[in-house]
Fold each of these.
Amino acid sequence: MVVCAVVLIVSVWLPSLNARSSVEQTLARLEAAMPAETSGQVGEDPAASLDAQGHPVMSALQIDDESYIGIIRIPSLDLALPVQSGWSEAALEKTPCRYMGSILDGSLIIVGGDYPDQFGQLENLRVGDEVTFSDANGRAYGCRVTRIDNPTEVDSSYLVSGDWDLSIYAYLDSIDRYVVARCSLA
């Protein structure tokens, strides 16, 4: 019975440890590839081309086979995570992803997975907490959480409603709801 318990613990713990190590390696490589941080302002890149939704296209950096638009930092949750440029279920298993929008026009929405080393702790975020998004060009956008919602369902129209510079969200099994944190530039 002890052997079964050890096998079970190792089979659950080891993949989680490997995933965390992979994210930390990606984060380190992304930080090394990004220029030195400067303070970013919404609307400072008017020459950016527009995506299909009419948002300015954000620069991205290639790390292995993935494209990353930057890094999200949430000090109160002790999180610093790379953010992929596009989202899919497979991508969410690795890191948070850009769901839609752009930090360049103050409409960025980032979705994360319900994992302890990702957005699984999002329910512990509080109004007033600091969130920083650093884009691939090294521009850091310092924000404060100004609102937190816990809807049972979300869709694109809900996520784009309101005037928020940055929104981050995840579905959390532990509370059987979404956590949607709305942030405004500090």
Note: The mean pLDDT is 86.
Amino acid sequence: MAEFELPDNDVNKYQVIDGSRDEAILKTLNDIVSNTGGDALNGGVVNKFGRNIDVDAGTEIIASFGGTFNIMTTADTLDVVSSSAADASGGTGATLLLIQGIGADFLNIEEYITPTGTTPVTTVNSYLGVNRVYVVASGTGNTNAGSITIDDTSNTVGTQAQVPAGASVTQQCIYHTQIGRTFELNFLNLSAIKVTGGGGQPEITIKGYSFSRVTNTVYEVIDLQMDLSVENNVIIPYTNPIVYTGREVIYFTCTTDTANTKVSLRFSGSEGDS
């Protein structure tokens, strides 16, 4: 699953009280994968990554499902469905999923779901948003066979997450902060290419937004431009991090002047109690 690296600090700082160095490393890696803070450690790490493999001329969310991302403002259960019957108990694809997100109380929640192939299965919990879904058990295929889509049950908002076929984990640059927490974004890595077709190289604009659940307002906080005829990869370490408070929805979009543009983005930072 993508790249998981320990922070550039003395790893002994991250030891659990009654555990070994190896246990501390495993705990840190789990926090990075699961997108929850590391309460047993000194703070937490958020590591988000996503891609849109086909941005047409215009603006789309940087997420595998593409198009427009609509934010849930009323908590609802979620419907989970795959494009393949093999993603089911006893199948060759995904046999167990873990969903992690934000509940109606703006706190982190998670639950395990056994997919039922092309028949939707509904979560027990109600969510305001999804931070990550990943395969925790699979059959002989060792990954999810189809694209697994997660929508609100009432079908009033639309897709909240997707695990692309063969990826085993969501690929979306969307993060919901829980109440009473502060997230400091201190790293961003962006790459883009034109995947097919003739013509010139795209010029793209990447924008980072925050929707505040407190003010019910969208704020533009990041604006980056890239001419792919000049460069196609940018790494930005923020010396002064961008600070987000609790109950915010952080998301990124890509605008391109050329169809068939692929964009991949990763952002990360530290999260702790406000």
Note: The helical segments are 21-34.
Amino acid sequence: MPIYEYRCSDCGHKLEALQKLSDSPLTDCPACGKPRLSKLVSAAGFQLKGSGWYATDFKNSGTKPAAKANGEAKAGESIVKVESAGFDLIPGNGDLTAAEVNLLTTDKREGRLRDALLEVRGNYDYILIDCPPSLNMLTLNALTAADGVFIPMQCEYYALEGLSALVATVERLKKTVNPRLEIEGLLRTMYDPRNNLANEVSAQLIMHFGDKVYRTMIPRNVRLAEAPSFGLPALKHDSTSRGALAYLALAGEMLRRGEKQPAPAG
């Protein structure tokens, strides 16, 4: 059982405890009397993992991501079942940096992830591939393996500039390595309707991409931001928060869009 370190979010007072990952202290801070204590995972609990590790309660599969990228492990062997959250996961960590270096000297390097997922692709209705916010060999593998690109973005100027570059990249890849690749949709995240710039960027997105922009918007929400520190998905942390309800609405919108799409020929 990992040791967690609890600190007051206001005064920093430390309270050591041995707890399950889903537990959270709701008592007043003994130092300053504030009503909540924030939880931080200590170094004794987990080493640095991908974001999926912070949002779920399960243990390491024991297979390093670098081994997956090098073809030393099959995708089916690397899957971890997250029973509490209702999905399966192939986790990543810092070793992916080494995997990217190795891929640079590998034949057909842009298709390694696509080939690895072939054995499990038929087992799922949806496979989501989380990408880093940069165009590197890992992102190229993801775009080669994907049928569609789901783009979450803040309604800010620099995000709009990055979106233009991403759209151009998708078009190039569609012409070269993945002709089925399409932009599935754009999701406006951390949205604050009181911000004039956010409203202006949102209007530009709708003008240029039309129905590709999801109607659902994910608002700035404290409960969403603090959920990973408790080791829980947002829906488990607080299912009634505005952020959690927005993600539920997004899931429904995605499913409805999927039902409207025509079945593939053949």
Note: Confidence is low (pLDDT under 50) at residues 1-7, 15-27, 35-63.
